[in-house]
Automatic annotation (TrEMBL):
Signal peptide: none annotated. Gene3D superfamilies: P-loop containing nucleotide triphosphate hydrolases, Winged helix-like DNA-binding domain superfamily/Winged helix DNA-binding domain. This is AAA+ ATPase domain-containing protein. It comes from the Bacteria. It comes from Lentzea guizhouensis. Residues 43-171 form the AAA+ ATPase domain.
Amino acid sequence: MAGRNAAGGIRFRGSHGISAQFLPPAPPKHFVGRLRELEQLRPNGVTLVSGPAGVGKTALALRWLHDRCSGDQLYLDLTVREPVELRLGRLLRALRLNDVPAEDRVAAFRSIVLKQKITLLLDNASSADQVTPFLPASGTVVVTSRSSLDLGGAEIALDPLTDETGSLAPLLDLSYVELPERQARLYRLCAWHPGTHFDVPEAAAIAGESECDVEDALDDLVEKALLTEVGDTAFGFHDLVRAHARAKRQIG
Ligand SMILES: Nc1ncnc2c1ncn2[C@@H]1O[C@H](COP(=O)(O)OP(=O)(O)O)[C@@H](O)[C@H]1O
Ligand SMILES: [Mg+2]
């Protein structure tokens, strides 16, 4: 059920009306592989998806939630530093529970998640302590982290995607052929940047364009899942995507 709150213009989905800022984003359009991992992820329980930055943790979790979980889902990005009681306060308000005193928020959140059978995705956890306040007594929770946190549940350690099936290049081509020429050029050129990530001024220098134009084009490439945002100000390629971009090599 999708609708619009006449008063606030906030988008709601699901019968319990979780506000849009806490809904999981869409999984990558051209998701490939990870069949074993998608099987390993199980409902009912806590699963940690671990692995280095850019390996595909969030993509896997989003794909699984999208395909295999029914009911309400809630997405929390723990990279954003925020005291836990403030975060819980915002969450509870998003769940239409206003004015819960700070000391009762953990219990209130856990019980509402349990009662409404809400599936949780806690993205980018850096410690177990950061996760604990959000864990209901039972239910489905997926946590992603660069570290192998001990959360008392299952762990799926992700290795980089290999292109064994050769299935990624044709999918990337689908996105690539739809790119306006300026974006396609930027995609090809930035793939030759020697580091793991680059920022707007660097991309502008590589392309010989203004930072302003380049920033818009980089954002479009992120939206099309050809580039990844690294922190607040930088961009990077997934290894296989970089290889694809380099293979296009019509430099100019
Ligand atoms: N299985 C996959 N198929 C297609 N693209 C993927 C896949 N896994 C990751 N990606 C892409 O690779 C990039 C990095 O993945 P992401 O899930 O954000 O990594 P992490 O969360 O581990 O830092 C994103 O652009 C994402 O869309
Ligand atoms: Mg991630």
